[in-house]
UniProtKB/TrEMBL annotation:
Pfam family, one: DUF6089
Name of the molecule in the record: DUF6089 family protein
Occurrences of domain DUF6089 (ranges): 5-222
InterPro entries according to UniProt: DUF6089 (IPR045743), OMP/PagP_B-barrel (IPR011250)
SUPFAM superfamilies: OMPA-like
Protein origin, superkingdom: Bacteria
Length: 225
C-alpha cells in the first residue's frame, strides 16, 4: 500500500515537472543613466549591455523569472542640455551587475503552441539587487580608491513578446531602476572634490531585444495566482 502511494506521488510530481513550459533567453541592448552628470533622458541607450534569463510559466498569464544583467553605464556633461553642465565638463563610466527575480504579468493569455495566443504585451514585477563601483576614499588630491557596493532598486518594466518560429520567440523590453543611491556617478559629499551631486537619487535603464527558447510539454499549467 505504501509503495503504491509512493508510486502515485512520484508519477504525479513528474507530470507536474514535465508538464510546465520553461524558457531561457538572451537579451542584447543598451543602457543609460539619469542623475547628476550628462543627459537626463529616461530612455536613451548609449552603452551596449546584455542579460540572460530563465522563466517558468506558471499559467498563461503569469511567468516567474530570474535575470542576470551586465549593465555598463556612462555619461558626459558635453551631451547635457544645460550650459551649466556643459561648462562643468564632468564624465564617468561604471559597471552594474544586476540580479532580478519576479514575474511577468501578461495582458493576454500566452501559449506558444496556440495560434491565437502567441503574442502579448506584459509588465514586470520584480525585486532587484545590484552591485557597482563607488569612490571610498581620496588618499591624495585627485587620487581615488574604489570599492564595490551592493544595493537595491525599485524596478519598473514593460515589454512585448511574440512567437518567432517553432519553439523560438522574441521580446522587446524596457526596464527602469530607481536606486536608493546617489553615487553611481561617484558623487559623494564625503569627498569635497566629488561633492557635485544634488538631492535626488540616480536611475539606470536597460532597453533590449531578447531571443527566447521554450521547452517542456506545453499547455499543462498549475492552478493558482
Amino acid at each position: 500500500m505504501k509503495k503504491g502511494i509512493l508510486f502515485i506521488v512520484l508519477v504525479s510530481f513528474s507530470s507536474i515537472i514535465l508538464g510546465q513550459v520553461y524558457e531561457v533567453g538572451l537579451t542584447l541592448g543598451g543602457t543609460n543613466y539619469s542623475g547628476d552628470i550628462g543627459r537626463t533622458n529616461y530612455i536613451y541607450p548609449n552603452k551596449p549591455a546584455g542579460a540572460v534569463f530563465f522563466k517558468y510559466n506558471w499559467n498563461p498569464r503569469i511567468a516567474l523569472r530570474a535575470t542576470y544583467s551586465y549593465l555598463p553605464i556612462e555619461a558626459d556633461d558635453k551631451n547635457a542640455d544645460t550650459d551649466f553642465k556643459r561648462n562643468r565638463g564632468l564624465n564617468f563610466t561604471n559597471t552594474i551587475n544586476e540580479l532580478a527575480v519576479g514575474m511577468e504579468w501578461n495582458f493576454y493569455e500566452y501559449e506558444l503552441n496556440s495560434s491565437d495566443k502567441s503574442w502579448t504585451p506584459y509588465i514586470l514585477l520584480e525585486l532587484v539587487a545590484f552591485n557597482y563601483n563607488y569612490v571610498s576614499s581620496e588618499p591624495q588630491p585627485g587620487q581615488f580608491n574604489y570599492s564595490k557596493k551592493t544595493s537595491y532598486a525599485i524596478p519598473f518594466g514593460v515589454g512585448y513578446k511574440s512567437k518567432l518560429y517553432g519553439t523560438l520567440a522574441f521580446s522587446i523590453e524596457a526596464k527602469f531602476r530607481y536606486t536608493f543611491e546617489d553615487d553611481l556617478d561617484y558623487s559623494t559629499n564625503k569627498i569635497p572634490a566629488l561633492n557635485f551631486g544634488g538631492n535626488s537619487n540616480d536611475w539606470y535603464m536597460f532597453t533590449g531585444v531578447s531571443l527566447i527558447y521554450t521547452f517542456g510539454r506545453p499547455s499543462c499549467y498549475t492552478d493558482g495566482l
